[in-house]
Amino acid sequence: QVQLVESGGGLVQPGGSLRLSCVASTSISNIYNVGWYRQAPGKQREWVASILNRDDTRYADFVKGRFTISRDNVKNTIYLQMSSLKPEDTAVYYCFASTNWGQGTQVTISS
């Protein structure tokens, strides 16, 4: 069982940037699929991005070109660099590693 703790959320103006971090309690180097989902108020949780194996990155169409996912297997951390943020990016962002989930971090995009 891997414990995951997200951080880095907050309130940002449209067009701004944030970097989310997700620290794992144990090594994630052998976990094939790690990444991020998000859930906006009143909506279902939706997939945002994944890293498969070590460097095969995948993105939902609505974040392509704006978000970058990365992982640091030495620090057991998954990152999500978000830029050109829009109000519709407002959501709770959850990281996952295989079938393990974090508690989420709130991201609010508003002027």
Topology of this structure?
Elements: E1 4-7, E2 10-12, E3 18-24, E4 33-39, E5 46-52, E6 56-59, E7 67-72, E8 77-82, E9 91-97, E10 100-101, E11 105-109
Parallel strand pairs: 2-11
Antiparallel strand pairs: 1-3, 3-8, 4-5, 4-9, 5-6, 7-8, 9-10, 9-11
Question: In a nutshell, what does this entry contain?
Answer:
The protein contains no helices and 11 strands. The chain has 111 residues and is mainly beta. Strands 2, 4, 5, 6, 9, 10 and 11 form a 7-stranded mixed sheet that branches. It has a 4-stranded antiparallel sheet with strand order 1-3-8-7, with no helix packed on it.
Overview of the molecule:
The structure is a single chain. This protein is mainly β. Helices cover 0% and strands 52% of the residues. It is built from no helices and 11 strands. Strands 2, 4, 5, 6, 9, 10 and 11 form a 7-stranded mixed beta sheet that branches. The mean pLDDT is 96.
Keywords:
four-stranded antiparallel sheet, 11 strands, mainly beta, seven-stranded mixed sheet, 111 residues
Overall geometry: globular
Number of strands: 11
Total of helices: 0
Beginning-to-end CA distance, first to last residue: 39 Å
Which structural class do you get from the secondary structure elements? mainly beta
